[in-house]
Amino acid sequence: MWKKFFDWLNDRLGLNELQESLLERPEPKGNWWNTLGSASLFLFLLQGATGIFLTVYYTPSPDHAYDSIQYIMNGVAFGWLIRGIHHWGATLMVLIVFIHMLRVFVTASFKYPRELTWIIGVGLLIATLGMGFTGYLLPWNQRAYWATTVGTQIAGTAPLIGDFILKALRGGPDLSALTLQRFFSAHIWMIPLVLAGLIGAHLYLIIRHGESHWPTKED
Amino acid sequence: MSESLSRRDFMKATVFFVGGAVGAAVGIPAVGYLIAPALKGGAKEAWIPIGKMADMSEIGKPYPFSFTLVQVNGWERTSTSHGGFVIRKSDAPDDLVILDSRCPHLGCTVNWKDAEKAFVCPCHDASFDTEGAVLAGPPPRPMDRFSDFRVTEDGVLEIFYKEG
Q: Predicted ipTM?
């Protein structure tokens, strides 16, 4: 019964070919440092899942943002767990993505034909940091407020267009409800979509070129 | 031993139990998180102190009272105001009529008019006697009563409020 169903699906989806090209592709000898990309991908999916759950109760308005998070932490079953995973997962993701980048750099895996994989990876690092920056404001507590005040001011020191960047980030000259709302939008829609797209391209290139082998003494 | 577990069956059982444990560890918090507000007891009822019996000594005189109920939904608080009148029928502390001042017609707040000896609703001129019965006007039924009440040991009158 199950075999018949699988064969029917396989006939139409080509699952066997998919498995051969995705999972049974030739790879160099395994190494724990080579698992950091997969770890980053896992953390991205974990952040996505917990983040979607948090939007069930979180309210991106200055009146309710802080209270709604207090409610998640104290009033909702397992709310502390889901927010805790999202909070620590975010920190871990920045760390893992950064170590992943260091590994690629140290093993010179960015060389031909993988330069584009590297360039996309830089975009992924920046987008990950953008997620951290926008997510940091959402609790709307003192630390979040002043961190964003300082962060947007730093962006505002850019020559010539600095003032414009500051106002564009804040949605006006000051931190306000507009800032919170646009950071929320960036945090749950814009940057995640950019991340998902770049991850797709990154993975395609990895499957296309295969993993680079670990450098030997001759390299 | 014919009953010994084959390697394949052992792996199957292990995958089944470990997978089940992982599924439960992820699934139970996820479902619990989503349905948590539905599991909270929604019974809006409480004993509300409305005044000292000693301050309401005159028989037949309506003593007004009011109270505010605060309801918390998640991070939002809504407060609603309620009011009514206490009328002593005799010296016995439990011989009371406690009326809700909300007009049973459209919900306006009725006032006691001493000259007319009646509760009068400002919206449509309905009037009620001290028992709450309709004297005139459009209300479909007499004034609502708080029929559950008690007097505490230190002489405070409390009513039992229940939504609906």
A: 0.84
